[in-house]
Write a structure and sequence with these properties.
alpha/beta, Rossmann fold, seven-stranded parallel beta sheet, 17% strand, elongated, binds thiamine diphosphate
Length: 374
């Protein structure tokens, strides 16, 4: 179905959410039609925030908002759905559009497997009606469903469309942010590998972990130095904190993304308060959710290093060039002490970038073996 027809059926004039690759045609169409971070379309920091914004929109207009997300975001959304939107609380109607990763029977990445299995069940438990949309779904099907949903929505309930791969087509403009800085994320990661030597690296969700994995493969190095945070977006710095505090003799490098750091920005002041001497926090700021289609994050307009300094990180810097980066990485390693290095990067990745060929269990085992944990 053309995404334009799908969106028209929803009969809404406000959209908010977090981008997803399954929903890329819809994200691009909404961004092209309503702009980004306007009164009609807001890319939220996380899916729970999107629900808050949508609730505010409803309270101030009486109209029904649309919240879009990847099914990974259902977890972030559970609390505001159950304690704010639900019929037994404030009864705020919302239409959800949810990209379905990890659908049972369809090959996908390991971190999507369980979430994919419980996607519809979780909606059911939260009393949210849902319809699966695939490439055979017609405009008439969606219109009929919306008619069915209208009485639910009138009564303050929520309703969802769960979107299978290939359900939408879109031929219009994409709204890609290009980023600033001279380096691509992958080039920055190669510099980090070089500087970190045999230290531990905790890498963020999306292509950063895939690029780290492939770089190790290319150079025949062990994957045991790395913990790939393949799911759990926004939590890699907290995982790194837990390791750094309990392995004070090891230097721990966290390779974060701007979208991921933004998603759970509250991790920063907590890390700063603990102030582990062996923690080097790198944020690759390409100003975009590059891994799922390149939609911009607000971080592109900001200096994450300044945010980190305000949170209490004792040493911060912001880098745009390779030579400068190598210097900063070496000095962070040499000086010891908590630091944050923000790398302003260009948006982009190799089209043939692969995915980790080992399992998550093997990744965990090798990583724990490397630390001597049995
Ligand atoms: C809770 C949750 N919401 C959404 C996603 C989908 N997702 C995977 S990677 C990604 C973008 C990450 O952006 P950033 O951290 O800036 O890294 P980049 O892709 O630019 O390297 C998104 C939105 C997810 N995995 N989990």
């Amino acid at each position: 179905m053309k995404v334009e027809s799908f969106v028209e059926c929803l009969n809404a004039d406000f959209f908010t959410g977090v981008p997803d690759s399954r929903l890329k045609p819809m994200c691009d169409y909404i961004s092209a039609s309503y702009g980004i971070n306007t009164k009609q379309h807001i890319i939220a920091a996380n899916e729970g925030n999107a629900i808050g914004i949508a609730a505010g929109y409803h309270l101030a207009t009486g109209k029904i908002p649309v919240v879009y997300m990847q099914n990974s975001g259902e977890g972030n959304a559970v609390n505001p759905i159950t304690s704010l939107l639900n019929e037994k609380v404030y009864a705020i109607p919302v239409i959800f559009v949810i990209g379905w990763r990890g659908e049972p029977g369809i090959k996908d990445e390991p971190h999507h497997a369980f979430q994919g299995q419980i996607t519809k069940e979780l909606l059911e438990v939260m009393d949210i009606a849902c319809m699966v949309v695939d490439k055979n779904t017609t405009e008439a099907d969606v219109k009929n469903k919306m008619e069915e949903y209208s009485s639910l929505l009138k009564n303050g309930k929520q309703a969802a469309f769960v979107i299978r791969e290939g359900a939408f087509s879109y031929e219009g403009a994409t709204s890609l942010y290009k980023g600033t800085g001279a380096l691509l994320r992958e080039e920055a990661i190669e510099c980090i590998i070089q500087a970190s030597g045999t230290d531990l690296i905790i890498s963020t969700t999306g292509k950063a972990s895939r690029e780290l994995f492939e770089a190790r493969e290319r150079s025949g190095q062990s994957h045991g130095f790395d913990f790939l945070t393949v799911g759990s977006m926004g939590h890699c710095s907290s995982i790194a904190l837990g390791i750094a505090l309990n392995k004070p003799e090891q230097t721990v490098w966290c390779v974060d993304g701007d979208g991921a750091a933004l998603m759970h920005l509250g991790a920063l002041p907590v890390i700063a308060d603990l102030n582990p001497r062996n923690f080097i926090h790198i944020v690759i700021n390409n100003g975009a959710h590059e891994s799922v289609g390149g939609q911009p994050t607000v971080m592109g307009k900001l200096n994450i290093s300044k945010i980190a300094a305000a949170c209490g990180y004792p040493r911060v810097c912001c880098i745009t060039e390779r030579d400068e980066l190598m210097e900063a990485l070496k000095s962070a390693k040499k000086n010891q002490g908590l630091s944050l290095i923000e790398i302003k990067c260009k948006v982009g990745s190799r089209p043939e970038l692969g995915r980790p060929t080992t399992t998550t269990f093997k990744n965990k085992r090798e990583f724990m073996d490397r630390m001597g944990i049995v």
